[in-house]
User: Fold Phosphomannomutase from Histidinibacterium lentulum.
Amino acid sequence: MAPKFGTRGLRGLVTELTDDLVADYTRAFLAACPHGGRVFVARDLRESSPRIAEAVIAAARGEGVDVVRAGMLPTPALALASMGAGAAAIMVTGSHIPADRNGLKFYLPGGEVSKNDEARIVAALGRPAAGRSGGVSEGEGIAGAYVDRYVGAFGAEALGGLRIGVYQHSSAARDLLCEIVARLGAEAVPLARSATFVPVDTEAVDPETTQRLAAWCLEHRLDAVVSTDGDADRPMVADHTGRIVPGDVLGPLTAGLLSADVLCTPVSSNTAVDHMGFARVVRTRIGSPYVIAAMEAALAADPAARVAGYEANGGFLLGFEAEGPAGGLPPLATRDSVLPVVAPLARARAEGRTLAGLVSTLPPRFTAADRITGIDTDRAREFLAAMRADPARRAAFFDALPPEEAIDETDGLRVTFEGGAILHLRPSGNAPEFRCYAEAASAEAAQTLLARHLGKLGTEVG
Assistant:
């Protein structure tokens, strides 16, 4: 499949992300979007990322733009630095997808690119190189500023007395996460550091990883295990038993601690948030550009609103000047993993609960999600169109479920059934994947729904 440009930037096979292609997208971005005369460039830990980062740097300098070489960093740390400097940024990462793929994420001085920005970038492709020579400097203090952001807001005792495992694998935040946990007062226990890239999808954790989490908790007497995906804009958190706390549970727990009143989240997120006392919950299409657009609209309507956003994968976006337990927390309207790791753990400790105990106080709605990979994208598109158009086709596919109560086509096909069960089918916008989301009144029921329909989905689109 040829490289694809979508809501999270450019992605494709490493063999197809040639230096020429990378340079073309870099030039198009710098020509189409504001950049303040500088661009910060960072990368994840994929084997291919250093080569691609150098291609980005060379192309940007050739356009006469000064480059800050930021090295290996979490995506949100890069965004925090570039936005603070009034500069653009390009992150070389494929996020959670396999190591034979990679990509680019683009940031404006004001934050993530919008759908309109994407269209302008595509329209600017094919430009000749300008033949100029921008400067280059080394980024300094970027990682430290990112760590200090959370230590300053939560304080040195926020996680005091806890033993927290840090599943390091090949996360771009693997060392910073250990440092943050330790500086917040916990004992950090590093786990499973990898010399090769491990594609961790925090929204679809594989059974082997789930078993390892439980084993680590038992072996090391842990209060929690924390981690991220490859570029560290999605969190993974497990309680003291090794049970994953879904991202769309971490999100409202974090928002509650920070006293947010308006939440923007994709249609796929757990419906428990609708019953947690927030003033308003705005549902969007899946993808941070849509969440950000909804946040911006809410702030335009009421500049004093305390607006936050989160995705089902756990990435959290802060749209207002919040107050943490120990100090201020400035806005960061890009997907972040550290805040939804720290905030629920700090909240549970402050309330004298385990993380599992805190989660148990929420409305009893449980989600499960997974994906079919390597799909035939044409078959997937045809299948989804038929499911949307034909009630009989849906009835056959959902044959074990009660009658339909509601249908939502905001993004993919989301069906609510009598009794409250929900199934949501959606092909990926930038990878040959088809995701299935399930929601029910118990974790077991959600997993059963997912397993049954994921198998059927594989037959339809595999």
In short: Residues 443-461 form the longest helix (19 residues). DSSP finds 14 helices and 25 strands in the chain. The CA atoms of residues 169 and 193 lie 4 Å apart.
